[in-house]
């Protein structure tokens, strides 16, 4: 099993250093709604286990008033996690994290997801950000400097399971946020370092 981990680490390191397009380990779709009312509802998180991993996370409705407080305002922080199995540190690899990318970034923020909801129904001037577990610090998508800090791999003669915890949130992008649907899509690759 350790040989497989060394092989996996070599493959991951090679893939990350390559300029070629790489396949994602998974995709997460984030859906939500910005409203002009003061009431919100609680929604659930759904996920499936199709390879590669694909999940949909529903953010709670938030008001335009909340998001229009200032450019860069985060709201509706919603937890999600990525579960890993068979984890064990090696001499060269002691930590793990997810690296997130998106094919659609807003012009004003290359490190968040653009709203890709159908234009006729889409909220304007709002995107989706991925946050550290604390829900305060944004993790940059697309290779930005603010990466996930990661988690230490277990040091044990037995492989263990791990869970990486994150939050997703609406992010105001400048201009007046309008009511409507919000959709953002991010891919992730598990990175060992």
TrEMBL record:
<dbReference type="InterPro" id="IPR000259">
    <property type="entry name" value="Adhesion_dom_fimbrial"/>
</dbReference>
<keyword id="KW-0732">Signal</keyword>
<protein>
    <submittedName>
        <fullName>Type 1 fimbrial protein</fullName>
    </submittedName>
</protein>
<comment type="similarity">
    <text>Belongs to the fimbrial protein family.</text>
</comment>
<feature type="signal peptide">
    <location>
        <begin position="1"/>
        <end position="23"/>
    </location>
</feature>
<dbReference type="InterPro" id="IPR050263">
    <property type="entry name" value="Bact_Fimbrial_Adh_Pro"/>
</dbReference>
<dbReference type="InterPro" id="IPR008966">
    <property type="entry name" value="Adhesion_dom_sf"/>
</dbReference>
<feature type="domain" description="Fimbrial-type adhesion">
    <location>
        <begin position="28"/>
        <end position="192"/>
    </location>
</feature>
<dbReference type="InterPro" id="IPR036937">
    <property type="entry name" value="Adhesion_dom_fimbrial_sf"/>
</dbReference>
<keyword id="KW-0281">Fimbrium</keyword>
<dbReference type="Pfam" id="PF00419">
    <property type="entry name" value="Fimbrial"/>
</dbReference>
